[in-house]
Amino acid sequence: MFTFENVKYKDILAIDDLKIELGKITCITGPSGSGKSTLLRLINKLISPDSGIITLNGEDIADINSVDYRRRVPMLSQSPVTFPGDIRENLLIGRKFQAKDEPGDDQLKKALKAVSLDESLDKDIENLSGGEQQRVSIARLMLLDSDIYLLDEPSSALDDLTEDFVIKSMVDMANDQNKTIIYVTHSKSMADKYSDKVIKIVDGRVYNG
Description:
Blueprint: E1 2-9, E2 13-20, E3 25-29, H1 36-43, E4 51-56, E5 59-60, H2 66-72, E6 75-76, H3 87-97, H4 105-114, H5 130-143, E7 148-152, H6 160-177, E8 180-184, H7 188-193, E9 197-202, E10 205-207
Parallel strand pairs: 3-8, 3-9, 6-7, 7-8
Antiparallel strand pairs: 1-2, 1-4, 4-5, 9-10
Helix pairs in contact: 3-5, 4-5
């Protein structure tokens, strides 16, 4: 479980008390600029709170090695992160960073299918649209086989049909394997349909958390 106690970050976010259960799908919603992405970055240790404590299973995350921690708790940013090369290389690079064995092409193709992307593994990443690159980024994250995933508006560049397919694939994977997803979205329909818990942030304050 993640717990937040008296956490403050600048004048952007103030959390008196918040608990996020593991093995669940938690959605973070709220208006633009309310602090949703800031909360996700705090969980990922990309930024540190000015005061207060964030713990994971009782351990202060400030005391955990940041590299090791982010291997356990990877985050997908709003804008797709790609690397020079083909789709295969982009899918494998996350596993290399984690020093894990490389999956074979069959597993890579399965990951692409899960994000509704029917492209050759040999296709240059630069020849994909922004939405397709985002789906490659999501597939790469899923291949990490971590216990906890942080997603910052994972479907922002996708059409409604693809959004539903991709989010459902990730949620099904998480439920089948008892993994945790914490994601930010502006889509009320996605939040209602694919969340065990919804955290709403308004003007830097947490509600229903």
